[in-house]
Structures are given as structure tokens and as C-alpha cells.
Amino acid sequence: MVPDGNEEYLARRAQQGDREAFLRLYDLYLDKVYNRVKGRVPSQYVEDVTQDIFVSVARSIPRFRQRSRFGTWLYTIVNRRIADFYRQYGRYSEQRAVSLKHGEHLPSEPPFESEYSEECALMRRALNNLKPDYQNVILLRFADGLTFAEIAEQRGQTLEAVKSSYRRAIQALRDDMGAQA
Description:
Blueprint: H1 7-15, H2 19-38, H3 46-60, H4 70-101, H5 118-129, H6 132-142, H7 148-155, H8 159-180
């Protein structure tokens, strides 16, 4: 019998090849990872990036040393895969720019779907400009839907430290968005 919500136990079992344990971890984190990715990449790529993340987790879990909590380790992979996406996307954008010199036509639809308003793009740029610590607290709060107490527990900080980081992150977002507007 697997204890409910015991991610560290599930991670150990998954490392030993327990498929059910891995699927339980997948079920526990799918919505959180999806929402995190959704807040960081254009919507047409969210499912692909989310899938890449869980493929990476499946391949990497045997090397998980449990020096940190499973969720912390997982979000490290999430952040790396998002960064990988933008490195690849940048190469794609450069290739498209080159094709313009050759007279090829680009599709009229921008790379980010039209559902993304200018305000959303501004917010995304501002979020990407934040220090990683600030990005993390904002994403834990909004993308993952955690309370300040849950964030404090996950980050190993006091409640007041988390609230302070959150306030500074929100102010940095406001400052950046005001400068970009």
C-alpha cells in the first residue's frame, strides 16, 4: 500500500522501477507542471513542453539523489526544459528571419497565438525578466496555486520570508511592466 501524498516514498519506489509509483507522481504533478509551463510558453507549445518534461523526469529519476524534495528536483527539470524551449525557439526564429531575405512568405499568424493579448505578452516578458527566486515564488503562488504557508514549507523558509519575497516580486513585476508600457 502506497501512502497518499508521500512524494518522497513514491520517488524512491519509482527509482526502483515501480511504474505505478511513477504514474502516481505524474498524476500528482501533471496539472501543476502544465500550469507552470502554460504561464511561461506560448499555448501552442504547452503540451509538447509538458510532455518533454515528464519524459525527462522518467529518464532522470534513477539519478534523483533525494538531497532535495522531489518537487524541488522536478521544478529544476521544468525550468531547464522551458529554457531549452526558448533556446530552440530562438533558433527557429532566426531561421524564419533568414527566409525573409529569400522572399519566402511568413504565415500571417504570429508565433504566439492571437489569444495572447499585448498585456499577456508584456506580463510574460516581465516575468521572464525577474530573478529566478522571484519567478519561483510568483509561479508557486499563481501557476501552482499554493498558499503562502505551502510555499514556505516547500522552500524551507519562514512565512514572513515568503511573503516578503512575494511582495518584492510583485513590485518588480509592476516596475518592469510600467517601464515596458
